[in-house]
Design brief:
Bound molecules: ligand BV8
Structural class: alpha/beta
Number of helices: 9
Order of helices and strands: EEHEEHHHHEHEEEHEHEEH
Strand content: 15-25%
Number of strands: 11
Length: about 250
């Protein structure tokens, strides 16, 4: 497979669905550390060592503190021009054509989204929600935004069964949310745009292969391109590349 070429300046998506997969790099300009960059460590431990059911079983308070610390950063963050550009593209071309699928659990899209015109798919959940650790289908709670503190109250358990509450995120070894819909949308896409992801974590990292097999034109936006089954690359930060790209695609440039 040939290495990706720089995206031609006048390139525009063909008719048909646009699938946008975002990762931690999209939120970097909002001050949220990426997993594999400097922000990826917490108390000397890797995020992916703490983001597991076993870590929660072994030491639920340590995992709670890990998410409390990340939630404090997230609640202080605001969406950046990268988020706003993608929301503008979806608002202009519609939610049935533009699918915003994110690996991020920071909820930043929702901060700026117009609920009547935007919809994002959070394949790894959100640290702004909590769910029953019993894995029963008990109601999810959404204390944030709104709660007085970024910290989860460890004394508040599930309203149905009293079990501990855990962040409503998908840990390693757990099945991502909406995984069948996401696969279907990737295969049906005609443009696949990957923004700010290192392409390490599956099944998210395999979506570009499915999109390419389905006939999509695949583009990566990343200042340090991860490479893979992409046709084109925009080797630039999302917050500076996406506004101009969306202007170009909407014909506003
Ligand atoms: C699954 C939520 C089965 C939690 C996350 C052994 C046992 C079980 C599973 C496995 C196993 N071995 C492998 C697996 C599969 C595993 C996996 O892939 N492991 C990896 C480590 C090899 N996957 C899973 O376990 C998944 N589940 O497989 O279930 C299944 C699957 C399908 C169907 C049925 C069953 C679940 C994975 C989800 C884990 N949860 N997050 C939390 O956040 O705490 S993962 C988490 O890490 C993120 O969500 C994201 O997915 C990943 C981080 O990746 P990135 O977002 O890419 O961030 P990263 O820091 O790596 O890169 C940032 C990039 O941005 C860089 O490239 C950088 O250059 C760029 N960048 C920086 N600045 C900018 C920028 N780009 C643009 N602009 C900028 N300004």
């Amino acid at each position: 497979m040939d290495a990706p070429s720089p995206l031609p300046a006048n390139w525009r998506p063909p008719p048909g669905p646009v699938f946008v997969l975002s990762g931690a790099g999209l939120s970097a300009a909002s001050g949220i550390g990426t997993f594999r960059g400097p922000g990826g460590l917490w108390e000397g431990q890797r995020a992916d060592e703490l983001a597991t059911p076993r870590a929660f079983r072994d030491d639920p308070d340590r995992v709670r503190r890990f998410y409390d610390a990340r939630r404090a950063v997230v609640l202080a963050a605001t969406p950046n021009p990268g988020h706003l550009a993608l929301l503008r593209l979806q608002a202009a071309w519609g939610r049935e054509r533009v699918h915003l699928v994110t690996q991020n659990v920071d909820g930043l899209f929702d901060v700026a989204a117009d609920p009547t015109r935007n919809r994002t798919i959070e394949m790894h959940g959100s640290l702004l929600r909590l769910r029953c650790a019993s894995d029963e289908d008990h109601p999810v709670v959404s204390p944030w935004p709104g709660a007085a503190t970024a910290e989860q109250d460890p004394d508040v358990g599930c309203a149905v069964c009293g079990a501990r509450l855990r962040p409503d995120v998908v840990w390693f070894g757990e099945v991502p949310d909406h995984v069948l819909l996401i696969h279907r949308l990737a295969i049906a896409s005609r443009t696949f745009l990957s923004v700010g992801t290192s392409g390490v974590v599956y099944p998210a990292a395999g979506l570009v292969d499915k999109a390419r097999q389905g006939g999509a034109v695949c583009i990566e936006v990343n200042p340090e391109p991860a490479g893979g089954a992409f046709h084109y690359v925009v080797a630039a930060p999302a917050e500076t590349a996406l506004p101009g790209l969306v202007d170009q695609w909407l014909g506003a440039a």
